[in-house]
Amino acid sequence: MAVDQLxxxxxxxxxxxxxxxxxxxxAASTRRSRRRWxxxxxxxxxxxxxxxxxxxxLLAPDMGIARSPVAWxxxxxxIVLAVxxxxxxxxLRLGTSLLDxxxxxLAATAISAMAVxxxxxxTSNEAYVAAQEIWQWILTAGLVGIGRATLFxxxxxxxxxxxxxxxxxxxxxxxVGNLVAKRxxxxxxxxxxxxxxxxxxxLADGALPVLGASWDLERVIEEYxxxxxxxxxxxxxxxxxxxxxxxxxxxxVGVHLVPRLFESVTDRxxxxxxxxxxxxxxxxxxxxxxxxxxxxxxxxVLAAVLLVVCAPVLLLAALxxxxxxxxxxxxxxxxxxxxxxxxxxxxxxxxxxxxxEAELSDEERVTRIGRFLRKTALDELPQLVNVVRGEMSxxxxxxxxxxxxxxxxxxxxxxxxxxxxxxxxxxxxxVHGIGRGEQRFAHTALADRVEWDNYYIENWSxxxxxxxxxxxxxxxxRFTQR
Length: 482
Hints:
By secondary structure, the chain is an alpha/beta fold. The chain contains 16 helices and ten strands. Helix 1 packs antiparallel against helix 2. The termini are far apart.
């Protein structure tokens, strides 16, 4: 018996060593992949800016523009690469966004072009400076944007495959810590792979194993190859949490902090200092402000234009409903919108009338045409009328029925906060797949959707609306392919 136990112990120790070595090998492989990705991003930017410089010299005469001096043409790519470097463009970020990448490309190349124009004007009396530099800027921004778009597709694929992910330790196994773990597990494209918690007094139902307490930090980092730490809420005192953050910095481990009152934190922050004490001010959008009022006026004008443009499609869809299901063609249902006010939401019918004798489920009542209309979101087109009436917006949280709102306001955290703005046809949650194609009224899914909706309200800007408008067709394509 003792021999068997000894054999078991030796085998388990060997298995543990093999597993640890395998984990170290995998961590080394992901580190190499990240270095290759950073290098390839720099190389693509170098090649595209150089090609743009060559085309500037080659095609300038055909555009009726005198050739710039070669030295100034060569200066723009160098300044662009320097700006990218200063903006952290070659470091792996938390998550990816092609639109934000392209926005950075446009801004960095524009700043670089303005710098070259200013230097040329200050140091010489050359003619056609603005035309020459603007021509090179257009070529540079276009080619670098194409290169970044190509890289984005590859980076997203590598992230989802886990080849760029960093082993991540979460400090605090409480409610917020488990929420962070769940989000990271569900979204591997963020690039952080949670491996466990560090907490002396963890919750019993944690999503990941607890690997130790605060005094085990250095051991866990070394043993599991941790490259990133997220500090959430913990029962540990302030000086212990501060020591954890400083230890991570000394070990060159990346750190993210989940702040207290995180529900109030927006993307627009200013930091003042009272001696060594930072004072953070949050600047959230004002749902009652003039910018949002202008948005609603613009919505009504755009909705009227879209109604005219989409009229042929809407008429064909209505005719298909009429021929397959009869009257009524439009389905009207009470919903709750801004400030809790009720309005009548309009949709094209997609289901046969309820039949007590047949006792069909809602899914069985959906017709073939109705299923197509739902998948393509063509059943939502009549809501453009709601927008023209001023009852809805083009972009905002999706509205719910009054009886469901009464339940959700009692059971879902911050649900009523989403009624600060008008409901929308599309929204921040919808373009990220939150709320479509899932258990719609499941408590967890609904809580996630509410969180995304409130993020949109508190961080609203014309740029955010523009992003949602561009992402909506892509979200529809993904949904129809399911």
